[in-house]
Each structure stands twice: as C-alpha cells, then as structure tokens.
Amino acid sequence: MSTIDVRVEKKVVEADGIVSLELRAVGEAVLPAFAAGAHIDVHLPNGLVRQYSLCNAPGSGGSYVIAVLREPNSRGGSSAIHDAVAVGDVLQISSPKNHFHLLSAPRSILIGGGIGVTPLVSMSEALHASGADFEVHYCARSESRTAFRNQLRASPFSGKVRFYFDDQGGSIEVNELLAAPADETHIYVCGPAGFIEFVTSSAKRLGWLDSNIHFEYFAAPTTTDEQGSVPFEIEIASTGVRLTVPEDCSAADVLLENGIEIPVSCSQGVCGTCVTRVASGMPDHRDIYLTEEEKAQNDQFMPCCSRALSRVLVLDL
Ligand code: FES
Q1: Which residue among 17, 166, 242, 290 is the one 20 to 30 A from 113 at the CA level?
Q2: Is 41 close to ligand 1, i.e. is its CB under 6 Å away?
Q3: Which residues form the FAD-binding FR-type domain (predicted)?
Q4: What is the CATH number of domain 4-93?
C-alpha cells in the first residue's frame, strides 16, 4: 500500500494523557482532501500501524490533526506516539479513509465519549461550515481529561456544545436527549464500545431508525477476543493449497508465514484493511467492520480476527 510522508509540525498536550499531532506533507507535496469522519493509518517508529481519526476541519490548510490517548494497556501504539514521536519527525501515513460518513441532513446529534470525540470535532466544524443544525454532547471523566475543550469553547458554535464530566456528576441523559426520534435527524456516536452500545441501544429502544444511527468503534469490543477458538483449515482457491490455522493463530498470520501477504492494519477486525473474499465455507465473523447483512452473505471475512465455523474455508486468493 502506498504511503505519504508527513512531518510532525506540532505536538500539543490537549488534556491529561492526550496529545495531538499536526501533520504536514513533506516538501511540496499536498495532502489529499478529506471529509469529516475520516481516519488515517499511521505507521509508527516501532513498526506498528494504527488508525486515528482526523479531528481538524476538512479543508483546513493542508494539514491533518490527530489526537491520541495514552492507553494504560497500550499494545505499543499510543505509547509510541506519546514517547517516541517528536516535532520534526517524518512518519508515513495512508490517504484518508472514511467509514464514518457525515450525511447531509437538516439536523445532527453528535455524542462522544472520551477520546472518541475526535471525529466529532471534525464533523462539528463541517456542520458549522455547512450551516446545518447540530449539537455536540461530549462525555469525559473530568475536565482535565477533556481534549479540545478550549477549542470547542472558543469556537463559533460553542453554544451547541455540552460537556458532561463524570467527576462532577454530569451524566448524559440519553433518554431525554433522544426522546423524539425524527427522520431528518441523524445521530453520530463515537467512544468506548460500552458507551456506543449504551447510546445506540437506547436510541433503537426509543424508536430511532437504524439508518439514522451512525457509530464508529476505536477498538473491537472485548467479547470478540473471548470466544473460544478451534483450529480450522484454509484453502487457497487458485492453488488448492491447504493450511491449518491453529487455535492460537490468526488466518492472516498463517497466510503470511506461507508467503501470502494480506494487508493488515488494526488486527482487531475494526478497520477493514484485511478483507478477503471467501469462495466457499462458513466464516465465524468476529469483526465489527462488516455489516450484519454483509456477514450473512458469507462471501468475505477478516483473516486478522475471524475464523471458520466450517472445517475448511476456501479463500479467493
Ligand atoms: S486488519 Fe483491520 S480488520 Fe483486519
């Protein structure tokens, strides 16, 4: 996959445990335009690749801004950004990708939990620029852990932003907030898995249409890792070669060990980078990227995390 070289222009402490990076193309190159909700893959100095939402206004001056929370159980991604990336460093990134599209609608409700606010910051800028009606509800543990709070408070749309700080008893009243479902209103949710599930299940219970509820996970819910795993076989359709995927190994790893490289990024079934066509067999879908309809068709799967319910899965490779 082609990458873009960018220089770290600024590194700012946005809140306790959260830094932002402003990235600009190296030399004369121009960064591709992006739409609100987009993210980029960032290739880190330790070889890991991580996805981060763009949180600046689309079209704002040829730079990308990302914000990263230092995860206490970091697998090396957030700690690399915090500890090993400095102003002036050159990083490789992907072009923006967007699985969290902001639709054109008369009214939007943006609900963010913690660092999940990042795509919503970009969305709020885009909605303000378009003149659409919107409101932002931003939940965080405390004011000191609330990234972009000063930026949002100083913004021309500050009156549309409401903060909820756990340590001040400011819990969001989702039942009140979403009490009146409306076809012309769309809800966008981003944050920890439990937060997303709470908001989206509440919205559905209150009568909101699935098509009006949009969300993006930052990481796969932990339940995907907790399911038992048994060995299965993958067959390469073009050669007939069969490979065994042991219970403690992913199909993507087995393919790589056997010289078949599938692009992998998040390794958690979140980003969709590794999607692979299935010619026959029944996948055991463990990702959160494919929709329920796509999963039901059983003609593609995510080898970074998904497995097989049938003994053999024939891959269209
Ligand atoms: S690498 Fe992200 S879904 Fe497989």
Answers
A1: 290
A2: no
A3: 1-103
A4: 2.40.30.10
